[in-house]
Recover the amino acids of this structure.
């Protein structure tokens, strides 16, 4: 049995090598899947479609994805997708996969953009795979207050104040439009079902079966049943949400919204009935918030700079950087960072592009990568507040380092550091710590040159 398993692994390592020879390291893509998933015809079709889409290596394992770690290390892909039936992508698997994605090379950072492709059925997973056209997010619906100035259109529902509600239209300022009733479920359901909605953001109390949009006041609730998200108002009237237009979902302040613990999990229903193609959510009750709320800092407050998948990885890199470099972390912060590091799942094709529509950025980033070296220049564009958070609602907001992804993978040992104190050059990204709060916003330049 052990010999057969070894031969099976070697065979798929050879497949990985063959694909790697045809695809550059900067663009390579690997698909990981369980043998049990791969043997089911509908799911095999999903895997084959994804492999064709990205010219990807397919790595099959019996039980544990670490079985194919040698193949991953050989390929060192830019993107990794895990394809699996919903019973296999439980919370313990997400925890484990986070750790695996930091073991492809020797540094402590996440080594690839990754995502889990699953669904209530293979048909739901195929919708994720078949999404090809980039998504430009123009309309955002949020169950909590956000930086609407960074959105083209936005509708916000207040989780803390009854009837709190605002609308921002194109080229207009945000306007407060209080609701007629404390119960916002009908209005939320209609906003989610709006075919123009591209991004959904939520916070508040939640489990794998429900979400309560009123965090500090009595409100209705949302639930999942037979793959459908539906609101139930205080009068017990139900409001199903059906909208298959592609969108992304960020339950930044919700407990358990990323946990798949059965076919009625909320995460699966968001995919099935609401058109969610990418989702980043906690697989355990959240109490610290760095990974969830930090997505706002990279994705919403720097519109157009990062895809949703890149914002997830950027925030992960920022978390690991803080753990690795902050010698004066107090016990609670260290405990919180260690908890958050492996607790947020990312669902969807990591190579699919979903970005906020362009808006004036608080600072510019110019990355240069050529034969002479690598540099990242950051310039303030909005005066003294350029490097400060735009919105501080939530937990662990602000202070995220500047981060740019390299155009192609490099060997950092071949580069000599020339400036910008404490900047990091990794094999596929540049990270520059953000100045301390209150510091004067000045141009920052990090530079490395090839060693002679």
């Amino acid at each position: 049995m052990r010999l057969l398993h070894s031969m099976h692994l070697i065979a798929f390592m050879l497949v990985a090598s063959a694909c790697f020879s045809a695809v550059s390291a900067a663009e390579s893509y690997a698909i990981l899947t369980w043998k049990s998933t791969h043997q089911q015809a509908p799911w095999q079709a999903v895997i084959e479609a994804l492999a064709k889409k990205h010219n990807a290596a397919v790595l099959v394992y019996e039980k544990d994805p670490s079985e194919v770690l040698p193949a991953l290390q050989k390929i060192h892909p830019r993107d990794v997708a895990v394809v699996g039936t919903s019973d296999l992508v439980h919370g313990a698997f997400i925890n484990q996969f986070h750790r695996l994605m930091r073991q492809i090379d020797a540094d402590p950072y996440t080594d690839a953009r990754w995502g889990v492709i699953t669904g209530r059925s293979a048909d739901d997973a195929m919708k994720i795979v078949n999404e090809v056209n980039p998504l430009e997010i123009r309309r955002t619906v949020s169950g909590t207050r956000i930086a609407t100035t960074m959105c083209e259109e936005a509708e916000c529902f207040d989780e803390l104040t009854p009837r709190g509600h605002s609308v921002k239209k194109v080229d207009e300022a945000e306007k407060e439009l209080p609701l007629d009733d404390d119960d916002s479920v009908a209005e939320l359901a209609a906003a989610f079902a709006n075919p123009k909605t591209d991004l959904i953001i939520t916070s508040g109390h939640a489990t794998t079966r429900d979400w309560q949009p009123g965090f500090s006041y009595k409100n209705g609730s949302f639930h999942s049943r037979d793959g459908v998200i539906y609101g139930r108002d205080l009068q017990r009237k139900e409001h199903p949400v059906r909208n298959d237009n592609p969108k992304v979902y960020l339950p930044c302040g919700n407990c358990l919204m990323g946990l798949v613990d059965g076919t009625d999990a909320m995460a699966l229903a968001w995919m099935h009935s609401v058109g969610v193609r990418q989702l980043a959510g906690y697989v355990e009750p959240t109490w610290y918030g760095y990974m969830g709320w930090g997505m706002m800092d990279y994705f919403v407050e720097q519109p157009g700079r990062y895809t949703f998948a890149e914002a997830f990885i950027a925030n992960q890199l920022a978390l690991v950087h803080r753990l690795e470099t902050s010698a004066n972390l107090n016990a609670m912060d260290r405990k919180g960072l260690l908890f958050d590091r492996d607790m947020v799942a990312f669902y969807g094709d990591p190579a699919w592009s979903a970005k906020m529509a362009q808006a004036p950025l608080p600072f510019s980033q110019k990355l240069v990568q050529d034969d002479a070296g690598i540099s990242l220049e950051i310039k303030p564009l909005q005066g003294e507040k350029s490097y400060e958070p735009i919105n501080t609602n939530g937990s662990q907001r602000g202070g995220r380092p500047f981060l740019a992804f390299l155009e192609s993978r490099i060997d950092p040992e071949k580069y000599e550091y020339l400036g910008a104190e404490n900047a990091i050059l990794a094999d596929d990204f540049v990270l520059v710590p953000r100045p301390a709060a209150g510091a004067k916003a000045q141009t920052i330049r990090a530079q490395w040159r090839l060693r002679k």
Remarks:
- The longest strand covers residues 247-254.
- The two ends are 51 Å apart (CA to CA).
- The CA atoms of residues 373 and 449 lie 4 Å apart.
